[in-house]
């Protein structure tokens, strides 16, 4: 016999090392029979699960360890691998004897004897709860960062659309869509101060079932009274605003400021977030996130409103006559072309009234240009007051004026012109301490479609009727129909 085949008297007895591993390994070990029922467990298994040999022997380990939140697909995967007598390894959620969940890296290995007969399953379980916790935290952080990135992209897109709005109506359209997208769980409203600043008027609302008062008083809102944004539902000391009817519902009130002046209020309310609704920690987390988003939105809306106002002021200046405040020739040419196209498309009438101050030159020659300017302003003031909202007074230059009468047939336009002529004739003006002569105007009326189909035709025919009125003695109104009769 070779020396190497002789047992070393210093070697421990057979099975000693296996016993050491079984006793001191930190991994739980279960040895089961071919029927998957446990026959032996090590001490680490008992330390992990709280189940001793008396609890587990003769039972399938999964029947004790798996619970309500254990992945059913993972359990079926283990059962199928065991039925097919093949090795399987996966992560699975188990439960201790006292119901505490813990994650394990489970490996189930079939064991065969020298004849190839399947005799046992060896299951090893390594506790990976700490790793899973870190993975879950990382996933939460990843999702939170993804949400923040999405919010940043939406805010940037919202900002782009807000600053692209050419009019207040376009701006409101963007606000409705953007706020509903950014904070979908909330209803909202935008209020703007009325001209007298004694009330705020509802100009836009959004959400599932918006129900907001049409007007609110400035003193009814804590945000307006305190001069800064107010969040109800986030602080231990808080008081509801008088304009809010649901007193227990969280909401935000955010002043809208343009050029340093508070011009309105954005109100956002979270219906369904009451104390008895969403869980407290979730409620606080969501509201705090939405508060940050709302503050950014309020700032962007404020800047956009200021931008639209400035753009409108500049546009208004370019389209208004500096002396009289009436629309100028540029505005008239563009607007009249649009309205004529609408009239043709919708088969509705449209009229032009050409207006000229009679003997205007004598006011300038006898009383000076200040007197002439006074006459023009007074006539313009009467033109602004004479008609409905569909009558647009314009100054084309010098003493030449035009009334663009949208949706108005010839007879009504003639009545408008006569009413204006009568009121002008009743003016009593003085300049530089001297009374001015009576002011009179002559008017010519042309109407679409009977008098002309193009703007150039209508303007030419209205001027022709105006000249006929002057030649006929001035201080009168003549329409294109009167010319055809004569």
Number of domains: 3
Task: Write the CATH architecture name of the largest domain.
Answer: 2-Layer Sandwich
Radius of gyration: 43 Å
Protein structure class: alpha+beta
- For this structure, the CATH topology of the largest domain is Beta-Lactamase
* Mean pLDDT score: 88
The total of helices stands at 15
Separation, N- and C-terminal Cα atoms: 148 Å
Strand content: 15-25%
What is the spatial order of strands in the main beta sheet?
A: 8-7-6-11-10-9
Element layout with pairings:
Elements (H helix, E strand, L loop, with lengths): L15 H9 L3 E5 L5 E4 L1 H7 L3 H4 L4 H5 L6 H12 L4 E8 L5 E12 L5 E10 L1 H36 L3 H15 L4 E7 L6 E7 L8 E2 L5 H5 L3 E3 L18 E8 L2 E9 L10 H40 L9 H18 L3 E8 L2 H8 L1 H18 L4 E7 L2 E7 L3 H16 L4 E2 L2 E2 L5 E8 L6 H17 L5 E3 H6 L1
Parallel strand pairs: 17-18
Antiparallel strand pairs: 1-2, 1-5, 3-4, 4-5, 6-7, 6-11, 7-8, 9-10, 10-11, 12-14, 12-17, 13-14, 15-16
Helix pairs in contact: 6-7, 6-9, 7-9, 11-12, 12-13
EC number: 2.7.7.65
Pfam families: GGDEF, PAS_9
Keywords: Nucleotidyltransferase, Transferase
Which key terms come to mind for this protein?
486 residues; Beta-Lactamase; Alpha-Beta Plaits; six-stranded antiparallel sheet; five-stranded antiparallel sheet; 15 helices
